[in-house]
């Protein structure tokens, strides 16, 4: 099947837009590669420092010519998704040593959990942590002693930050290694119902805690299809994971076998051999377009509308929200995974998972097949699935039929003819909305607004019974420059209650929503943000907005709004406590949401 003409047109436009920036990036990467294996250029003292604690690998590092693999890890044992990474370095070192090479932990990067910080002050560090992770990755690899690298990370900002950092060292081959989702616990839909009951005062904290503990109960990624699991999907669609490795649970024998194989594969792609495949060649324009296709086909997290732009820019590729919107128009929605359905990612994987979806999209001409990947040349490798044969890892073709059409469908029988994310434009500026989980009757909301400068103000108004009819809740001064662009997911239960009462309700904000958010229409990432004097700063209570997801518009219907003075806000209370004072340079330097909300500039 030839590639869809519109997809080709979008890709060509991205290539042309990025031409100068991409060429300069690739020139830097070729120059870095031409210097040869890194550690040989170190002084004897430098090498001795680098290898002093290498134990049985010390002599091989000092005198040998075999590859040295760098491990960049986001391990901590508070974050359930990353707890399994504790044992990966030993597993990798032993496997690489058995194959004649060496491996060292190059460094660690921070990893915070949005589930812990949701609605808390720490959430204001969340987005900025992505760029901290990128910088920490740079520090880890700056010792310049590695021939290839593997990256251990899963969650929301961690994978994007690692990808940004990996591309700065784009002359190195890079493979990303997942940990997998926790086994299924309390159904996500049941958990959401308990949260709504708690918000309505119908159950107490004891019942809420029991539900949450039953949902989040062991090592591995949360099982809903939020930002973390969207990241895992992207790593397969973009060729950085091994095929069908994203959603295998921690502790499975094949999970360990895949970890070992990923490490061996990374080192096999180094410049020391005949299969040199640097990550700068894997992450080209086609790979990023394939990532956008996967995002739409799965109804993935809106956070990737920021992260993918920042990730692409690190490799000299310029994406914009119009690209995403046009991809969404031609890519059908093939999956229903919570919050877009009742299934979790374990059910999705059992139904055929990413391998089946990639097969369907390749067959429909909606993916570029000719990309370089960690599994070899061509995306067709990602229709395979791993299994153990006499204790050894082997591969076979995955299913060519969905094993549960309530979760995963062929392209010819999609849940919807277009993807799950949409760009909105109008007098309020530019924003985005996730519509894959929003019922058609809720995709158009025209209503008077209530304006707030803090999510706690919204919660107080809800508790006071102030929402008595159709309402669009506007929460502003939540952009990256104002306070780091926190997620406002903690508003979801009360907005869902209002929707359940029969009101037309929506959220409009220059902040973010969680990848777990769904049923309530939310126009998010509004740009320009309020702190920059964007139109959202001119709104006042009672103004009427019209959000039309199908038409892709967000309009101000009240006359004369933009003739007013822009409202300002004292944000000083957001700049101290819980580490926020350390991030003043980030707030001052960060770019706009539609350019990736990055501190690294253009």
How would you characterize this protein structure?
This protein has 602 residues and is of the alpha/beta class. It is 37% helix and 14% strand. The chain contains 21 helices and 16 strands. The strands form four sheets. An eight-stranded mixed beta sheet has the order 9-10-14-13-12-11-15-16. The mean pLDDT is 94.
Structural features:
single chain, alpha/beta, about 35% helix, about 600 residues
Return the average pLDDT rounded to an integer: 94
Structural category? alpha/beta
Radius of gyration from CA coordinates:
24 Å
What is the terminal separation in angstroms?
37 Å
How much helix is in the residues?
A: 25-40%
Low-pLDDT residue spans: none
Shape: globular
Largest sheet: 8 strands, mixed
Strand content: 5-15%
Discrete helix count: 21
The strand order across the widest sheet is 9-10-14-13-12-11-15-16
How many E strands?
16
Element layout with pairings:
Layout: H1 5-34, H2 44-51, H3 58-63, E1 68-73, H4 88-98, E2 102-108, H5 114-117, H6 126-141, E3 148-152, H7 158-168, E4 174-177, H8 188-199, H9 205-215, H10 227-237, H11 253-268, H12 279-282, H13 285-298, H14 304-314, H15 321-330, H16 345-350, H17 353-363, E5 372-373, E6 376-377, E7 384-389, E8 392-397, E9 421-426, E10 429-434, E11 444-452, H18 455-463, E12 471-475, H19 480-483, H20 492-500, E13 505-509, E14 522-527, E15 544-548, E16 553-556, H21 584-589
Parallel strand pairs: 1-2, 1-3, 3-4, 11-12, 12-13, 13-14
Antiparallel strand pairs: 5-6, 7-8, 9-10, 10-14, 11-15, 15-16
Helix pairs in contact: 1-15, 4-11, 6-7, 7-14, 8-9, 8-20, 10-13
């Amino acid at each position: 099947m030839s590639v869809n003409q519109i997809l080709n047109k979008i890709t060509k436009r991205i290539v042309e837009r990025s031409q100068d920036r991409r060429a300069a990036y690739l020139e830097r990467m070729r120059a870095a590669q031409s210097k040869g294996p890194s550690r040989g250029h170190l002084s004897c003292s430098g090498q001795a420092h680098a290898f002093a604690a290498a134990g049985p690998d010390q002599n091989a590092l000092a005198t040998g010519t075999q590859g040295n693999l760098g491990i960049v890890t986001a391990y901590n044992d508070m974050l359930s998704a990353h707890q399994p990474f504790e044992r990966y370095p030993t597993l990798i070192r032993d496997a690489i040593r058995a194959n004649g090479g060496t491996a060292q932990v190059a460094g660690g990067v921070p990893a915070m959990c949005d589930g812990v910080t949701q609605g808390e002050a720490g959430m204001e560090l969340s987005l900025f942590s992505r760029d901290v992770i990128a910088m920490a990755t740079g520090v880890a690899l700056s010792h310049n002693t590695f021939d290839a690298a593997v990256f251990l990370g899963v969650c929301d900002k961690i994978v994007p930050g690692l990808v940004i950092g990996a591309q700065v060292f784009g002359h190195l081959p890079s493979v990303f290694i997942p940990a997998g989702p926790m086994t299924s616990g309390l159904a996500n839909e049941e958990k959401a119902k308990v949260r709504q009951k708690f918000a309505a005062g119908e159950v107490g904290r004891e019942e809420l805690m029991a539900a949450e503990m039953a949902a989040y109960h062991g090592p591995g990624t949360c099982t809903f299809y939020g930002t973390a699991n969207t990241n895992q999907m992207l790593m397969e669609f973009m060729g950085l994971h091994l095929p069908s490795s994203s959603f295998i649970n921690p502790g499975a024998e094949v999970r360990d076998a895949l970890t070992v194989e990923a490490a061996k594969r990374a080192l096999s792609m180094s410049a020391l051999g005949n299969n040199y495949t640097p990550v700068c060649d894997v992450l080209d324009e086609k790979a990023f377009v394939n990532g956008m296709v996967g995002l739409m086909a799965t109804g993935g997290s809106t956070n990737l509308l920021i992260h993918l732009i920042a990730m692409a820019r690190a490799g000299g590729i310029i994406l914009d929200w119009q690209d995403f919107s046009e991809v969404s128009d031609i890519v059908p929605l093939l999956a229903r995974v919570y919050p877009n359905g009742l299934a979790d990612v374990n059910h999705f994987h059992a139904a055929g998972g990413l391998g089946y979806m990639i097969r369907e999209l390749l067959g429909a001409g909606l993916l570029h097949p000719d990309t370089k990947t960690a599994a070899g040349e061509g995306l067709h490798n990602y229709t395979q699935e791993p299994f153990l044969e006499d204790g050894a890892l082997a591969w076979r073709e995955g299913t060519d039929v969905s094993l549960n059409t309530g979760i995963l469908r062929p392209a010819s029988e999609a849940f919807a003819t277009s993807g799950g994310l949409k760009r909105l434009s109008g007098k309020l500026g530019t924003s985005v909305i996730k519509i894959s989980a929003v019922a058609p009757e809720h995709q158009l909301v025209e209503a008077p607004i209530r304006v707030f400068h803090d999510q706690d103000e919204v919660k107080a108004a809800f508790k006071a019974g102030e929402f008595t009819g159709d309402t669009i809740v506007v929460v502003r001064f939540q952009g990256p420059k104002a306070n780091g662009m926190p997620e406002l997911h903690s508003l979801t239960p009360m907005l869902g209650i209002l929707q359940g009462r029969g009101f037309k309700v929506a959220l409009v904000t220059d902040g973010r929503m969680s990848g777990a958010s769904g049923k309530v229409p939310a126009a998010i990432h509004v740009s320009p943000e309020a702190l920059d004097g964007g139109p959202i700063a001119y709104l006042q209570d009672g103004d009427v907005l019209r959000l039309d997801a199908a038409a892709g518009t967000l309009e101000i219907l009240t006359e004369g709004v933009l003739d007013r003075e822009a409202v300002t806000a004292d944000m000083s209370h957001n700049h101290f406590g819980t580490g926020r004072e350390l991030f003043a340079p980030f707030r001052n330097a960060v770019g706009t949401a539609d350019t990736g909300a990055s501190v690294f500039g253009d």
